[in-house]
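Incident log, entry 3
Record: PsbP C-terminal domain-containing protein (240 residues)
Problem: checksum mismatch between cached and fresh output.
Input:
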Amino acid sequence: MWSSSFLASPHFSSPPKLSPLSSSSSSHRHKIQTFLCFTQNPSSTVGVSFSKRHLNLSILTLLFNGGFLLDKAKSMAESGDLQRYTDSKDGFTLLVPSSWTKVEKAGANALFEEPEKRSNNIGVVVSPVRIKSLEDFGTPQFVADKLITAEKRKESTKEAEVVSVGERLGQGQGQVYEFEYKIDSTRGGIKRVFSAAFVSSKKLYILNVVHSDSPENPLDSSTRVLLEQVLHSFDALPLT
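Fresh output:
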């Protein structure tokens, strides 16, 4: 998991000069694109018909599952599985599972743990920085690369890989970077990590959502939806 020192250290106090991610890139802003490839066999009309039918069924399945998971996530929030936590002093807010317990820990501005398994937790760290926004530091992909490099340098890390990188506009009109990655370490085994970060009023806000994801007990879809809701809810409080 990344800490405030990742961006707040003197080494990263000023934005680095970035080079394009590829020779064809004309912008430093990372964009996630999804491509659906469909190959037809012109010599076989039966094969084409079957492929189209299979494709249509796949699309319907994806739409159904996506809508189901979205509805389930909304019902979780509405039924009380998630509750709003707001820190007026440090200026941030997020949703947390109502059954998780808030605990005190040095270095964390807020920390919530699952009672049955305390290694599953949600933590927030707030630290002062010199940059005005995350864009001053780099693109989401640039930060993700730095993040995973830092994870791999830890002695306890056996393997680490980025799963997804994205960004969204926060309610304070600042960019929020979001990351998902997996870590296999000697401390706790395989874990799934959802992270988010933003800069507001010269402060760096970092969220880490950590959950076990071992082959014997993989992260189930309902829990994943719940944790993603937590990730997407992390934001700065409106300036008054």
